[in-house]
Structure formats: structure tokens, C-alpha cells
Write the C-alpha cells for this entry.
Amino acid sequence: MSVLVITGTGTEVGKTVVVAALAALAVADGRRVAVLKPAQTGIAADEPGDLSEVIRLAGPVTTRELRRYPDPLAPATAARRSGRPTVHPSEMAAAAVDLDRTHDLVLVEGAGGLLVRFDDEGTTIADAAWALNAPVLVVAHAGLGTLNMTALTAEALLHRGLESVGVVVGRWPAEPDLAARCNLVDLPEAAGGPLLGVLPDGAARLSRADFLDTARAALSPWFGGTFDPEKFAAPHTC
Ligand SMILES: Nc1ncnc2c1ncn2[C@@H]1O[C@H](COP(=O)(O)OP(=O)(O)OP(=O)(O)O)[C@@H](O)[C@H]1O
Ligand SMILES: [Mg+2]
């Protein structure tokens, strides 16, 4: 089974853009890709959500969204307020397994960070990863504060017996400050895994063709890219 769960150190860290980059590389490699978003919040029924963004950047991959809630809140809270049903990790896992039957790579994007609740029992995307026995990729901010949030996420993964494959920086500033530059050295330690990519600021605004080139340069060979963390860090003195 080739399912990868993408979580982040919080909301708006660039999970969707990283999912799109992973999808773009896999599609370019001729692989059949599916992206699953168990719960999309903060978007009205007729508005484009994260999955539309993935298709815009990566091309026509299979997408599946299980629930949508209008309020920009954690899925459990948004579900409660909307009166709509929650989505259980067993349903997320079943959807991923179903997609896995007909695709070579299934990417599952959580909502916000790892321990965001999907229902009032307190289930999280970590429970879905556990049910799927799937590895987890952590997307993190570049700057000050990211080491703590990344370490907390890594510790929570370890505590749950989940495999963390490493960390990707979702948005690397054009002019990185001292904290961002030094984080290149310290993020792998905080994540308990390698730095598997750094997406440059502006990546989300590129055309599909340019986004593919950027994704290739920004993601590790582990994902089909050419990113080398040591080469990337070399000019960024700390
Ligand atoms: N590398 C980048 N370059 C330019 N814009 C970016 C980049 N990464 C993220 N963004 C922008 O920042 C915002 C948040 O990114 P994104 O939607 O990927 O975050 P997320 O972690 O998926 O958030 P959510 O928790 O809501 O799903 C979006 O408007 C996105 O276009
Ligand atoms: Mg997203």
C-alpha cells in the first residue's frame, strides 16, 4: 500500500501546496495519484477547496473530499455548529484503501495540525494514519517557533507509534532571516527525521509547468525530486 498522510505544525503552513508538489512529481513520473481530504472546513459548498488547489497546481489527479463544513474551525467544532455528521477515522481509512486499489500513490491531507479533532470523541488524523499503518510527513513553517511546533508534532507521532518520514518547509522566504537559516540545521533534529524539501515562497502562484519544475527542485529524491538539504543549506549561514 502506498498511502502517505500529510500533516503540519498547524493550519496554513502549506500542506496543500506540498501535497500538490508531491502529486505533480508522481504524475510526471507516470504514477496514478489520488488525494483525499477527509474534512474541508471554512469553505462554502460551491467554493473551491484544497482539492481544487491541488488540481490547479498538479493537474488532473483523482480527488475525494468526505465532508465539508462552512465554518473555518476544527472539523469537530465546525461539524457541531453545522449539525452535519462528523467523519470517523475508519471512514477516512476505508476511503484511502479504496483509492489505493486503483492508484499508485494516495496522499491524505489532514486539517490543521496533527491533533486537531474530527469529532467529539477526540479522534484525529493520527488515528487514520494508525488505522492505515501509513507514514506521516510533517509540513512546517520556516521561521522562529517552528522548532518547538515540529518537535511537539514529532513527539506526538512517536507516542502514537506512527512513522514520521521527515519534514518539509512549506514556504521558504526569498530573504530568510537568521531564525529561518538556522532552522535548516535544527529542523531534522526537531522532526526526528530528515529535511525532505523546502518549497520557495511564490510556488503556489506558479503556472502548472513552472510548479512542476519548482517541485522537482524543492523535494527530495525520496519523492522523485532533486532537493539536497546540504546543498540548499550551504549558502544560508547561521
Ligand atoms: N510556497 C508557497 N508560495 C506561495 N504561497 C504559498 C506557499 N505555500 C503556501 N502558500 C499559501 O499560503 C496559504 C496556506 O497554504 P496551504 O493552503 O497550503 O496551507 P494548509 O496547511 O494546507 O492549510 P489548511 O490547514 O487550511 O489546509 C495559501 O493561500 C497558499 O496559497
Ligand atoms: Mg490545506
User: Anything to note?
Assistant: The mean pLDDT is 97. The pocket of adenosine-5'-triphosphate (ligand 1) is lined by residues 8, 11-17, 50, 111-112, 170-171, 199-205 (CB under 6 Å). The two ends are 40 Å apart (CA to CA).
